[in-house]
Design a protein that fits this description.
By secondary structure, this protein is of the alpha/beta class. Strand 1, helix 4 and strand 2 form a beta-alpha-beta unit. The protein has a single domain, classed as 3-Layer(aba) Sandwich (Rossmann fold), CATH 3.40.50.1820. The protein has a six-stranded parallel sheet with strand order 2-1-3-4-5-6, with helices on both faces. About 35% of the residues lie in helices and about 10% in strands.
Length: about 300
């Protein structure tokens, strides 16, 4: 859907790999891009107000992952806002996010270790948009001693195997770009694993007006360290939606080890930005007992070099 942000050589390769029907659907993403442009403009107008009300940062490291078919440049406004509040912010440094393969998996693991070491063993907040949120959650699951908390934006971790959770053409495109690993996101065992939150405080920001992802697939099971926050946003524009930025800065401002669910003050204005009754009460799934040595599916990342 965000194919329009890609360089011409990669764009051409992707277009040639898509069927005519897929191309037609992909160009519907122009609507999403228009919505995201409005959200980005609104952020520029409201940033001073948001910044004044947000808590000052404590300087801990924050690693931000872009969504499918986007890169660090696309998500830079989010990193800029976080950095301005006093956090040490990092991009994922993986170029365009076209999915998971051996190279990207090794790169993310090494980058996480580098940030952890660079900051003297200070734990890292991981933030991911869409597919980037899957990577953030899985890194936190495998390396909880390195990760402080996780925040996802429009990430369908609860429906990766469900063809109705995301547009079929995007799933087909992902499979064509990642033939060796696409099955990892669709196996029954991996489905249970993806829905199970990592063992760190985990926030999912979602929108019922998301035109790309079914909001139900973005809901965490209700557990002591998980939450689901509904906002009004487009999918592509969520990383620079003013309400999303406000939530992210509030979450980042909590002291380590003192996490509490997001609780905006009751007001007519906040009822507009944070619609009430947004969560579905999901029962916590059974522990999948995930063990990379026993399951046929391979781990996303390996623990080598990380303690």
């Amino acid at each position: 859907m965000l194919i329009f942000y890609l360089p011409n050589d990669l764009k051409l390769c992707i277009i040639w790999s898509m069927k005519k029907k897929q191309i037609h659907k992909a160009f519907k993403g122009v609507v999403t891009i228009k919505r995201s442009a409005i959200e980005r403009g609104t952020l520029a107008l409201s940033w001073n107000h948001i910044s004044k009300k947000a808590p000052a940062g404590d300087g801990h490291p924050v690693l931000v992952f872009p969504g499918f078919l986007t890169n660090d440049t696309f998500i830079a406004p989010l990193r800029d806002c976080i950095a301005e509040k006093g956090y040490k912010v990092y991009g994922w440094d993986g170029g365009f996010n076209i999915g998971l393969d051996k190279k990207s998996g090794q790169q993310m693991r090494a980058h996480l270790k580098q940030i952890f070491d660079e900051n003297g063993g200070q734990k890292i907040t991981l933030i991911g948009h869409s597919l980037g949120g899957i990577f953030a959650r899985e890194l936190a699951r495998e390396f909880p001693d390195v990760v402080r908390d996780v925040i996802t934006l429009g990430t369908p971790f609860g429906g990766m195997a469900d063809k109705t959770a995301t547009p079929g053409y995007l799933g087909d495109l992902y499979g064509q770009l990642n033939p060796a690993t696409a099955h990892l996101l669709k196996s029954d065992k991996m489905t249970d694993r993806l829905l199970t939150p990592p063992p760190v405080p985990t926030t999912s920001i979602f929108s019922k007006t998301d035109e790309t992802v079914d909001w139900r697939a973005c809901l965490n099971p209700i557990l002591p360290q998980t939450e689901n926050i509904q906002i009004r946003a487009s999918h592509a524009g969520m990383p620079f939606n003013p309400t999303a930025i406000n939530v992210i800065l509030d979450r980042l401002g909590q002291k380590e080890g003192a996490w509490q669910p997001f609780a905006p003050k009751a007001s007519a204005v906040n009822n507009i930005f944070y619609p009430a009754g947004s969560e579905e009460k999901l029962a916590a799934p059974k522990n999948p007992g995930w063990d990379p040595a026993k399951l046929k599916t391979q781990a996303f990342f390996k623990k080598s070099g990380l303690k």
